[in-house]
Amino acid sequence: MATLDWAMVAALAGWILVATNLALRLVALGVIPGNRKPSTGAAWLLLILIVPILGFVIFLLFGRTELGRNRHERQLRAKARIRERTGRLADVKPPPGSPDLVSSVVSLNDRLGSLPLVADNGVQVIDDYDEVIRLMTEAVTAARSYIYVEFYIMAWDDLTGPLFSAMADASERGVDVKVLFDHIGSRGIPGYKQMLADLDDTSIQWHPMLPIMPLRGRFRRPDLRNHRKIVVVDGTVGFMGSLNLTERGYNKPRNHKLGRQWVECMVRVHGHVVAELESVFAMDWYTETDQILAVEARQAVHTTGPDVVDGVSCQLVPSGPGFVAENNLRLFTTLIYSATERISITSPYFVPDESLLYAVTTAAQRGIAVELFVSELSDQFMVGHAQASYYRALLEAGVRIHLYPAPYILHSKHFSIDDTVAVIGSSNMDMRSFALNYEVSLMMLGPEIVQRMRQVEDHYRAVSRELSLQEWLRRKPGLRYVDNVMRLTAALQ
């Protein structure tokens, strides 16, 4: 019997490993750059060139944004149905005094997101966390026909309990209550299993979005998430913005110990834009359940009050992997290039791609007053350091960076352009929100609504401190190194 030559086996294994590494590198060179941004392709190539086998495994798990043929086809059918229904809304023009470019932005949004500009809406900007929950509970309590609720993170806790109870009571009296929440986003919050049990004890119809359930054959890239926040009641009132449906510390003891609380901004809307919010919910409901919801534009019902801005022209812009283009990114960059006087941006996670970075820094370099509001301390290690890697370029271009004081987390997501346009929604200004997350953004036109958003920005500025270039240049080399590494990982989309 021949003796096994372990030296030969080891040599052969070594040659196989070398050949595999070389083959993977060659394959990556021809496959990775296809239909990807240069920065994204370069980041994936660098990872695979450094650690070919591990890098390729990571790429197979996280390198593709496809959601499966069946889901994609459902999304296309839902989008076509939205186009058909919203096509019945009146075709309106931007209000008088709007810059010429706004008309082309409206056409861009309509073409990409299938939702038109609609006029004569009432908008209430709400930057009080508890007040948002109270107003949503009030609307749900008054519901007569249906309630549609969709959030990235959902938790049944002391703050949100009255809202959930109101939904349960409504379902018992015959109101059609439908609830969507992101599977991965919500299950990381303490009390998740109890929330599911409590929902099961009601007549509420609920479904997780983008569920990861390998044993049931439901698996996809795990970091593709539905990040939207939407509430629609009876087709007459809607809510959207940045707030997740949980208490201000996300029910996490560490946040409570640190005094960490989230700062949010939402809008309550009335008018035809509510039908657009309802259409986005209906698309997500159909995608998850294969059930079609009838969406009709109803007679606009307005609520007057000192905080309500009437007569606002609005356009809703959905975005995400189900759309061909990065709708939110194209909207953001186009508006930023259109600015002639002032740009104010609030984003908890500002990790721009090349196009957005150039738009913001170019605006500052051509004399536009550009300011960025971010948290002093980020709640996410990797994203916080990736964001920090852009501060020098922004400060050198003339962008003024305002740091919202710790331990608060400035989670609001909105920006304003001159005195004519404001945008608010669920989308961060980062590559994840542009390419991987389902988001929804609301463009609002007119000086009155911009002035209301300015009041929120003025408050942020009053409580924040401004970061100077001199201070930032003193940042320790070790921190700068971590910033740059995290910047590279942010490009692995």
Automatic annotation (TrEMBL):
- Tell me one Pfam family matched here: PLDc_2
Q: Which InterPro entries match?
A: Cardiolipin_synthase, CLS_N, PLD-like_dom, PLipase_D/transphosphatidylase
Question: SMART domains from the xrefs?
Answer: PLDc (SM00155)
| Enzyme class name | transferase
Q: Where in the cell is it found?
A: Cell membrane
Membrane-spanning ranges: 41-62
- State the EC number(s): 2.7.8.-
Q: Could you tell me which residue ranges the PLD phosphodiesterase domain spans?
A: 222-249, 406-433
Topological type in the membrane: Multi-pass membrane protein
Arranged from A to Z, the UniProt key words for this protein are: Cell membrane, Lipid biosynthesis, Lipid metabolism, Membrane, Phospholipid biosynthesis, Phospholipid metabolism, Repeat, Transferase, Transmembrane, Transmembrane helix
What the entry lists under PANTHER family is as follows:
CARDIOLIPIN SYNTHASE, PHOSPHOLIPASE D
This chain belongs to the protein called Cardiolipin synthase
Q: What species is this protein from? A: Janibacter alittae
